[in-house]
Design goal:
The chain is an all-alpha fold. It is built from five helices and no strands. The longest helix is centred in the last third of the chain and has 27 residues. It is elongated. It starts with 7 loop residues before the first helix and ends with a helix.
Length: 118
């Protein structure tokens, strides 16, 4: 069984989630909106699926990582949408960059798990 706390993808996704939740709560137009709520759900889904998958076999863990990666893409789309809520690109640029790095890291870890013989 893996220790999810030792995985860099989990650590970085947790840190990113905290930053994005803070961002949505600090924006009056997002704080109680449906999009703000969905952004929070997507961002929490990423480290949650990584953690849950750690208790599984490599094959099952890959499915949890696919879900986490899908949540990354969903979150990236939602961060693009928040410009319509008065949040500027420059306000989320760092978070989007970090999210894109995380997407690459999760994909790389998935590739690594696929290379391990069952």
């Amino acid at each position: 069984m893996r220790n999810f706390r030792s995985l860099e993808i989990w650590q970085r996704s947790l840190y990113l989630a905290a930053r994005i939740i803070k961002l949505t709560r600090s924006s009056k137009s997002l704080e109680f909106s449906a999009l703000g709520n969905q952004i929070q759900k997507s961002t929490v889904s990423i480290p949650s699926n990584i953690a849950e998958g750690c208790a599984q076999t490599n094959r099952s863990f890959l499915n949890y990582l696919r879900i986490a990666l899908g949540s990354c893409y969903e979150l990236e789309t939602q961060l693009i949408l928040i410009e319509h809520y008065g949040v500027s690109k420059s306000d989320i640029e760092e978070e989007v960059d970090e999210l894109q790095q995380l997407e690459k890291m999760i994909a790389g870890y998935m590739h690594y798990l696929k290379s391990i013989p069952s």
